[in-house]
Write a structure and sequence with these properties.
Elements (H helix, E strand, L loop, with lengths): L14 E2 L6 E2 L3 E3 L4 H14 L3 E4 L14 E4 L6 E5 L4 E5 L4 H10 L2 E2 L11 H7 L15 E7 L5 E5 L4 H7 L8 E8 L1 E2 L2 E10 H6 L1 H7 L2 E6 L5 E10 L4 E2 L3 H19 L5 H14 L3 E6 H5 L7 E9 L3 H14 L9 E6 L14 E9 L9 H13 L3 E2 L9 H7 L3 H11 L8 H7 L1
Parallel strand pairs: 3-5, 4-5
Antiparallel strand pairs: 1-2, 6-7, 7-11, 8-12, 9-10, 9-11, 13-15, 13-17, 14-15, 14-19, 16-17, 18-20, 18-21, 19-20
Helix pairs in contact: 7-8, 10-11
Length: 445
């Protein structure tokens, strides 16, 4: 295909992330269907001195995917290429949504051992930002990747795995979108399984005092703390052979959980002191009794992020969990003007060797804070945000790459022992910085 006939970029496309908190207007927007087309786009970008940003589901609550130059949306490169029943591995194109992959895998009696809360996300993006779930025996999602192929700025295709291009592999398993275009990903799967979820009320003191027991007792354990109170909702999820069943109800979850909460939070933007009451009221309404669900694994892992929201999510060494949470609680108590929406979600992940993984060489606790935007209205959050970041930094925290944070290269050099190694791989693979954007410049310069 001669240059110029093959790829057509669309002008005038407005890119927005899912929460509509970040957006950009790329000069040209492409949806390629083949490697050749991507190569052509890269050539065109080089000739016109433009940068290129590759996006998947656009779910990251930050500007990591934004650009005003060329944007490549990978949604049309979304096939399952190979299922290896014996090794229980699957190779997919980088643009496949996990929601589609989950269904494909279950046809083959397979599943991913761990998934994040949302599945409308692309395989290459999930690993690019270090998506995680919970469970101290499970690493972040990129730890399930056993191989990948990368199209570099020069148009070369690199196969990477534990045994080939190993350095690039440890960099590319959490690539931030800055090493090249991830064409294919090979995931290690497990036999399909059902999960039994048990949700029950507790208190912050109790949970923090018995953290080790909870971590041992349940394979996928997490808890939700309701700020401005002692209330905690504990969530256990464990493989089961029991048949699917559910004790959840649409009315409470949606009618009350969604519409009423949004309305009350909107009112609280005028009367901030209401938040404290709202958090307690909703705990009593929706979380104060024991609830059980059994379903196929991915239906339990995924849950509705119903609201447009601002979030921060940092990982700290697991042994700092109690101290950090109690500090956050004290900060809220000592500063009545500072409001925090529920919940603070606390999850856990196993140490790994991925260079830019927030869990690099340490078992970690992820502490996710949230501020909703009722009817799209921003709620003042700066104080809460800065207080939280201060506590996280003090305890050696590392921010989740997909989420908004205020860290710069100096911070990352302190946080990540392998940061210089990552930088040198990035500079080798993309010497002219064609894959950079504003977000990444703060990281690397």
């Amino acid at each position: 295909m001669p240059m110029g006939h093959g790829v057509h970029g669309q002008g005038g496309v407005k890119f927005q992330n899912w929460a509509k908190t970040y957006g950009s207007s790329p000069e040209l927007y492409f949806q390629p269907t083949s490697v050749e087309e991507i190569r052509e786009i890269l050539d065109m970008a080089r000739q016109r001195d433009k940068r290129v940003k590759v996006v998947g589901g656009g779910h990251s609550p930050s500007d990591i995917a934004c650009t005003d130059d060329f944007m490549i949306q990978m949604g049309k490169m979304n096939r399952v290429l190979k299922v290896d029943k014996e090794k229980q591995q699957v190779t997919v194109e980088g643009g496949i949504f996990l929601s589609d992959l989950n269904i494909e895998l279950s046809k083959h009696g397979l599943a991913l051992a761990n998934l994040g809360a949302v599945s409308e996300v692309a395989a290459a993006g999930v690993i690019g930002t270090g998506t995680h779930n919970t469970g101290i025996r499970h690493g972040i999602l990129p730890t399930q990747v056993v191989a990948l192929t990368l199209l570099t700025a020069s148009g070369e295709i690199l196969e990477c795995s534990e045994s080939i291009n190993t350095d690039i592999f440890q960099a590319a398993r959490l690539h931030l979108g800055c090493l090249g275009v991830v064409l294919t990903v090979t995931f290690q799967c497990v036999p399909q399984f059902h999960l039994h979820e048990v949700v029950f009320p507790s208190t912050l003191t109790k949970v923090l005092d018995h953290l080790d027991d909870h971590l041992k007792r349940s394979q996928y354990f997490r808890f939700l703390w309701f700020p401005h109170s002692e209330n905690v909702s504990v969530i256990y999820q464990d493989p089961t052979t029991k048949p699917p069943s559910s004790s959840a109800s649409w009315f409470w979850d949606y009618a009350v959980g969604y519409y009423l909460l949004e309305f009350l939070l909107w009112i609280s933007t005028f009367v901030p002191s209401l938040v404290c009451w709202i958090n307690r009221f909703f705990f009593w309404l929706l979380f104060s009794s024991r609830v059980e669900n059994i379903a196929i694994s991915y239906k339990i892992f995924n849950y509705e992020c119903r609201f447009k929201q601002h979030v921060q999510d940092w990982a700290i060494p697991i042994e700092k969990t109690k101290e950090a949470l109690l500090e956050l609680k004290a900060a809220l108590e000592n500063n009545p003007k500072m409001v925090a929406h529920y919940p603070v979600e606390v999850r856990f992940a196993r140490a790994d060797e991925i260079w830019l993984s927030p869990c690099f060489q340490r078992d970690s606790c992820y502490m996710n804070i949230i501020m909703y935007r009722p009817y799209g209205k921003n709620v003042p959050r700066l104080n809460y945000w800065l207080t939280y970041e201060g506590i996280m930094k003090k305890h050696g925290g590392r921010p989740h790459w997909a989420k908004a944070h205020s860290c710069t290269r100096k911070d990352f050099e302190k946080m990540y022992p392998a940061f210089p190694k990552f930088c040198s791989v990035r500079e080798k693979l993309d010497p002219t910085g064609i894959f950079l954007n504003t977000y990444l410049e703060k990281v690397f310069y």
